[in-house]
Structures are given as C-alpha cells and as structure tokens.
Amino acid sequence: MESVINYHLKRYFEDHQLISDRQYGFRRGRSAGDLLVYLTHRWTEAVESKGEALAVSLNIAKAFDRVWHKALLSKLPSYGLPEKLCNWITSFLAHRSIKVVVDGACSDYKPINAGVPQGWVLSPHMEYCSHL
C-alpha cells in the first residue's frame, strides 16, 4: 500500500509543481550523474560566455530524524492533498514510541514527536514536505 501511495504522492507533487525541477535526490529518472551532467553543461556555458555560475548544495545532517510531526502534519492539507491521505499519514506517525536497551537494561517507552522511519518508502517525501 505504501508503494501505491508513494507513486501517487510523487505524481501529485510533480503535477502541482511542488518539487523544484532542480531537485535530483529521490526522484525517478534522475541521478547524481544526471545532476553532474547538468552542472557541467551550465558551467561550460558560463565559462564560454564569460559569465558567472553559482551552485548551492545542501546536505542536512540527520534530516529524516529531524522531521517534526506536528509541523509536517499541519502542512500536508495546505498542499491540497486529499483528506484521506493526510489522515493515513497522521495515523502512521501518531502515537509512536521508543525504548532503549543497553546491556540488557530497558528504558521506559518514550513518545516520539520527530523523525520519519528509516526505510519507510514515504520518508523522503515527508522530509521534503517538512521544508516546503
């Protein structure tokens, strides 16, 4: 089910131009190699026309761990996403908790109010949405 939702979410973001055309990470048909070709082309054009070129690259440390649930969930409806999808994502992220085990000693469960699960197919889109 997550893969189907991910497919439709990607299409929705692209159809409604919510993702920049310059976004290469986590996009089908785009790779680091494609970005390198694009940048090389633009830099070559700038050099040949004696112009200027500027590149800005962001790599946010622990980006998936820092997605604040409350802010993300409040933003989703503003993008025009269907209510059922917003409710499903809310349900998935709500009431999550964690406990830590160290040398056999367990902590109590603690609520989680930030972060998207590692390996969750929707994590890249949820992280991206949190910055829109």
From TrEMBL:
For this UniProt entry, which segments traverse the membrane?
none
The UniProt entry, under SUPFAM superfamilies, shows: DNA/RNA polymerases
GO biological process terms, alphabetically, are: DNA biosynthetic process
| Reverse transcriptase domain mapped to chain residues | 1-132
- Output the superkingdom of the source species: Eukaryota
UniProt protein name: Reverse transcriptase domain-containing protein
